[in-house]
Automatic annotation (TrEMBL):
It comes from the Eukaryota. One of its GO terms (biological process) is negative regulation of signal transduction. The gene is Rgs18. This is RGS18 protein. Keywords: Signal transduction inhibitor. Residues 86-202 form the RGS domain. Signal peptide: none annotated.
């Protein structure tokens, strides 16, 4: 026997309405925790901005378009060559730091340099309260398990760092920072020096005017005036 509700839509009794209502409400309740979790994760991702107060460390302020390490007009080939002398030399110059950060973004490993920058800023803290606030932010952003920008640390270094966050000292992140520094120096830095955008800066291509395409000469009637044809070969 066919369902009478299909034959007679007007028989949609209140019981059916109640059933549909609770079904919708049940789905809404299941979705609510998922929606509520998003602001928390987003808030964690944005905490890094509290550390990077100086304009020179803000993303995008000094970085060029995709494919460029830095603005060509601001870097000479001589300056770019100096970046290859040592990793310290590269990071000590703002243009070099910007260029290296841009390179790490192409490799999806920019969390390493961001952590290093955050640690440098942390060591400049002038009060215990500032140390505690920044230590908590760095830990939640880069150190703790499943952090938004978790860096690659060995178990011992992670544990030692975690234990000192509650009562942080200026040296709290020294071991972790050194680990990430060595990782970048031994792995990312050599690839940076071999990358085509960096080599282009060294060769000065980014500063040179593009070479003009050589065009073939077009002959005119005047070019043939006074020239007598040779029919001997015919």
């Amino acid at each position: 026997m066919e369902n009478p509700l299909l034959l007679f839509p007007q028989l949609n009794i209140s019981a059916s309405k109640d059933k549909l209502y609770y079904k919708v409400m049940k789905s809404a309740v299941k979705e609510e925790p998922h929606k509520a979790s998003k602001p928390g994760a987003k808030q964690k991702r944005n905490r890094l901005s509290l550390l990077l107060q100086k304009p020179e460390f803000r993303e995008g302020d000094h970085l060029g378009k995709p494919g460029n390490l830095t603005k060509a007009a601001s870097v000479s080939p001589e300056e770019a060559v100096k970046w290859g002398e040592s990793f310290d030399k590269l990071l000590s110059e703002k243009a070099g730091l910007d260029a290296f950060t841009k390179f790490l973004k192409t490799e999806f490993s920019e969390e390493n340099i961001e952590f290093w920058i955050a640690c440098e800023d942390y060591k400049k803290s002038k009060s215990a309260h500032e140390l505690l606030t920044k230590a908590k932010t760095i830990f939640e952003t880069f150190i703790q398990q499943d952090a938004p920008k978790e860096v690659n640390l060995d178990f011992h270094t992670r544990e030692v760092t975690s234990q000192s966050v509650g009562q942080p000292l200026p040296s709290t992140f020294d071991a972790a920072q050194s680990t990430v520094y060595r990782l970048m120096e031994q792995d990312s830095y050599p690839r940076f020096l071999r990358s085509e955008p960096y080599l282009s800066l060294v060769r000065g291509r980014s500063r040179a005017r593009p070479a003009l395409r050589r065009r073939s000469r077009s002959f005119t009637v005047n070019d043939f005036q006074g020239v007598r044809p040779d029919f001997s070969a015919w």
